[in-house]
Amino acid sequence: MEIPPLAEVRRLTEKRRDAWWTVLLVDPVATPLVRLTARWRWITPNGITWAALVMGLAAAACFAQGDRQWLVIGAIVYHISFIFDCMDGKLARLTGRGSEFGAWLDYVFDRVRVLICAVALMGGQYNRTDDVAYVWLALAVVFLDMLRYIDALQIFKVRQGMRQKLKQRAEAVNGTVPAHLADTSDVVDEAASEAEDATPQDAAPAPSLIVTQQSFIRRFTKYNRIRDFLIAHRIRTHLISGIEFQMAVFIIAPLIGAIMWTTVAAGALLLLFEFAIIYKLLLSTKDFERVMASYDDKPVAQEAEVQQGSPAMSR
């Protein structure tokens, strides 16, 4: 296939919003590599997914040694693994060779990599120190990773469900769908970015405020300013997500030699941002219920006229 220029590859493959770690430290390397590997048909997205898993297992083997030099090597290998993990989706979007099975494989291998690396890293420290706290820390890392992704996917479903119900109710009452509900790009991008699976778009976003976020915006007036600044740099507002948590545990902690306290701090920040997302969702559901109730308060005759036509017209 003819390989487009690098700027076009970025537009086609990079997500509209992504984790700051990915935007700043991974995409500048992964995107040029994708453009290079796209020249060879034998390199497939699923093949890169397998390579990411193999590199993750190699990182785990390094972590299990427990010594300082092996921790540093393991951190470097883990970062390479994550670069591969970002490349598979980019290659699939660029070449059109993605598949549903490939998406499943990528998701499952990510969870397997975190599980094995958490056990290896904390197990190596337990063998070195005999401190049982590392055993509990391994369980905490696996639990928080699982919690983050399950919660993100469920929030994504709830947000899409609310938007769809509002569209259906508005169309039933008014006969048309308001523009702010007809354009779903903002809510899908917002929710999907929280699920860490946003898709690239052809144009830069110009997000409009949606009805189910009004309460949050009123309570936190500076949110839009911060949000717009981050969006301009492709960074999502969920600054400490599953990706940043993983990088703190498996890269930063081994590099600085402070496994326990770095992991504890990263876990606390992850939970803080999760609670913020849940609070935002709570306010959104209240806005949703209020808007749905406003449609219910409209005269029944209005709906009847839409469905059956007025008596004057029937004559």
From TrEMBL:
Q: Which GO terms describe its cellular component?
A: membrane
UniProt key word Cytoplasm: no
Q: Which residues cross the membrane?
A: 47-64, 70-87, 132-150, 235-253, 259-282
Q: Which InterPro entries match?
A: CDP-OH_P_trans, CDP-OH_PTrfase_TM_dom, CDP_ALCOHOL_P_TRANSF_CS
> Which Gene Ontology BP terms does the record give?
phospholipid biosynthetic process
The molecular function terms in GO held by this entry are: phosphotransferase activity, for other substituted phosphate groups
Protein origin, superkingdom: Bacteria
Pfam families assigned to the protein according to its UniProt record, in alphabetical order: CDP-OH_P_transf
Q: Which UniProt keywords apply?
A: Membrane, Transferase, Transmembrane, Transmembrane helix
| Family designation | Belongs to the CDP-alcohol phosphatidyltransferase class-I family.
Question: Any idea what this protein is called?
Answer: CDP-alcohol phosphatidyltransferase family protein
Output the lineage of the source organism. Answer: Bacteria, Bacillati, Actinomycetota, Actinomycetes, Kitasatosporales
